DNA sequence: TATGGGGCTTCCCATGATGTCAAGGTCAAG
DNA sequence: CTTGACCTTGACATCATGGGAAGCCCCATA
């Protein structure tokens, strides 16, 4: 039986987050000492490590909730787990693609920016709407 | 002069966000009608478009604040702008690398997961700490 | 002119995951 | 008994955005 601080150190999840996970029902309420201190046994610390690892792979807490349930369910099908993982991979890849597109654009713009004392800058021109830059009050 | 809804449609920034940007001082307070309706002129809509574009490139609002100031400063140096952009690119690339590492691990795990009715699943094994899975109460 | 619909106002709450800070109780060692 | 480390809860911050409620305003149409 460990206190929350010990469980935090043993799992890599901060005490703050352990309490938070409990408050949102990701973890069950654990035993308490007479003074109200939380006490964690080996199984609970193991679940914390599970969460920590899942977070490090970017899984959102809601998915981790499902993963934990599957982990505990001896009758689970690996297909269910795999679906969650591949869906997460798709999410990640979508975000990566979006960011790569940003990087591409930004690098292109930065490449054409002198980066000296002069004020002229293709980056600002792009942001300002290069193809429509400061239209002199198009009477609309 | 446009109302907030018109400015939103013209800029791509939601009315909700326009108000928010004003409240955090990203945008100056604009003119109001007698009834309290905000009114936007062409310059202000232009600034909104600027923000919209910058957000689409992933710039955080604090950086956009600086970019707006530079945009308005005729005595700016393009070097300053370029620094902001390249720093942002570095941020993006760091996040991309992190996510790519997640994807790599997840794909590897998923590849070895049967994805059928059986419960055995390398993904869960990894999360559970494959190399240390359920240590029978290591008396610590 | 009355009424309705749509737009505007402000304010509060929620998201997702985490952190910081504060005020107070507790425990163990000295 | 004091001190310091640890625990408790709760509020607030981050970052950018959305949703919704309550209420006022404006215009068009019947």
UniProtKB/TrEMBL annotation, chains A, B:
A Pfam family of this chain: MerR
Parts forming coiled coils: 82-109
Keyword list, A-Z: Coiled coil, Cytoplasm, DNA-binding, Transcription, Transcription regulation
Domain HTH merR-type: 1-70
Native species: Dongia soli
Chief place of localization: cytoplasm
InterPro entries linked: CueR (IPR011789), DNA-bd_dom_put_sf (IPR009061), MerR-type_HTH_dom (IPR000551), MerR_fam (IPR047057), Tscrpt_reg_MerR_DNA-bd (IPR015358)
The protein's name: Cu(I)-responsive transcriptional regulator
CDD domains in the cross-refs: HTH_CueR
Location(s), subcellular: Cytoplasm
Keyword hit for Cytoplasm: yes
Signal peptide: none
SUPFAM superfamilies linked: Putative DNA-binding domain (SSF46955)
